[in-house]
Design goal:
Helix content: 10-25%
Number of helices: 1
Distance between the termini: 68 Å
Strand content: over 45%
Shape: elongated
Order of helices and strands: HEEEEEEEE
Radius of gyration: 28 Å
Largest sheet: 8 strands, antiparallel
Number of domains: 1
Number of strands: 8
Structural class: mainly beta
CATH architecture: Sandwich
Length: 139
């Protein structure tokens, strides 16, 4: 029967561990930037008109991509605010009547970290809100 001393076993185990630690790891995929956070938006007036889309939150701006369905004449209005309710930037689409159309907008939010929340409103042809505005916070 072959017996090994504890020193021999520990030495062998140490060699295996040191070899495992020095063998290069398999190359991994390089890290990519995390996706920018998004928020879904839906504001409707109960009469068939609505704004629907997505807010994408960047460090110094917020993008809206989506559609406006107008029954009668409507327009989309957006405004971005900081954490103290100070307005940072606003945009409005043109007036659209009885149609479905794309209403993209880029809202400036030129403060460190960007905007905290966005108000999205469905307005009539004169720029008056026809329903309560939706308020959407940065995730």
């Amino acid at each position: 029967m072959l017996r090994r001393s504890a020193l021999t076993l520990f030495t062998a185990a140490g060699l295996v561990m040191s070899t495992a630690l020095t063998v290069p790891a398999v190359a991994s995929t390089p890290a990519t930037a995390a996706a920018y956070p998004t928020t879904s938006v839906k504001v409707s007036d109960g009469a068939g008109s609505y704004i629907s889309g997505t807010l994408t939150w960047y460090n110094r701006s917020v993008d809206f991509t989506g559609t406006l369905k107008s029954v009668g004449c409507r327009r989309a209005w957006y405004s971005v605010f900081d954490g103290y309710a100070n307005p940072l930037g606003a945009r409005s689409s043109s007036t659209h009547c009885n149609t479905v159309t794309s209403v993209p907008a880029t809202l400036p939010a030129d403060v460190v970290g960007g905007g905290t929340y966005v108000g999205v409103c469905l307005d009539d042809a004169n720029g008056k809100p026809v329903t309560s505005c939706g308020v959407y916070f940065r995730p």
